[in-house]
Design brief:
Helices cover 39% and strands 16% of the residues. It is globular, with a radius of gyration of 17 Å.
């Protein structure tokens, strides 16, 4: 049986892993989740100073205080920018990483730059504005995702989609603007990449291939962990062997 630490995407929290978490626990695995500072039930801690490095600390502290050993980190979306920093700090606690349609970010690169939403100069300028109090501390991504779902419904039942949309919440603006300190290229642990078929993360899939990571296709959209938790859990188990 495996030890899993499940890391969530932007605008979400540990809640999004609940369907997969239940399945993995029912199959005898040990499972931990963590909600990042400034997200979901920890949204009251949002501030201009919350960065990816804050979230690295969230995960490292969870590993320490929960006495997690020999774990497989499963990083969804935004968490791909966090996982390398965690692996750098506690390499003896991690056996493997599985990226689920996740960001593949270079050292010194911001996630918004990696995704092509802006260039480095624009990200630096916006980050300075946030730090000076001249721009919002929240990104607005949750509302953007709700509007997009109206035109492009998730590949799941209406009830499941509504559950996701009801729970989506803001994320700290600085998360997407602050350069990460440890890039994906530094990982020296085994990495498996799960590429969803219906997603905007195609450029990240190519980055994973360029790093030489095995890339495994999973039919579904970017929220496949809710739309198809059974298939997601099955593939995670398969890649854990």
């Amino acid at each position: 049986m495996a030890n899993y630490l499940l890391l969530h995407c932007g605008a979400a929290g540990s809640w999004m892993w609940r369907p997969v978490e239940r399945l993995l626990r029912d199959r005898g695995h040990q499972v931990w989740t963590v909600t990042y500072t400034g997200f979901a039930e920890r949204r009251h801690l949002n501030s201009k100073d919350v960065t990816p490095q804050t979230h690295v600390a969230d995960v490292v502290n969870t590993i320490h205080f929960e006495d997690i050993e020999d774990c497989i980190i499963v990083a969804h979306s935004y968490s791909g920018s966090i996982a390398p920093g965690v692996a750098r700090q506690v390499p003896d606690k991690i056996s493997k990483l599985i990226y689920l349609d996740a960001l593949v970010v270079n050292e010194g690169e911001a996630t918004n730059v990696a995704m092509g939403f802006m260039n480095a100069e624009q990200a630096d300028g916006m980050l300075e504005m946030v730090q000076r109090g001249e721009a919002p501390i929240s990104s607005g991504v949750a509302d953007m995702q709700r509007k997009d779902a109206e035109q492009n419904p998730y590949r799941m039942s209406a009830d499941r989609q509504q559950w996701v949309l009801d729970h989506l919440d803001e994320m700290p603006m600085s998360c997407g603007l602050s350069p990460v300190k440890v890039g994906a290229g530094s990982l020296d642990k085994p990495v498996e990449y799960i590429a969803c078929t219906d997603t905007i993360m195609g450029p990240m899939h190519e980055r994973a291939k360029a790093l030489g990571w095995p890339v495994h296709e999973l039919d579904g959209d970017h929220v496949v962990l809710v739309g198809n938790p059974e298939g997601t859990a099955d593939l995670i188990e398969q890649l854990s062997k």
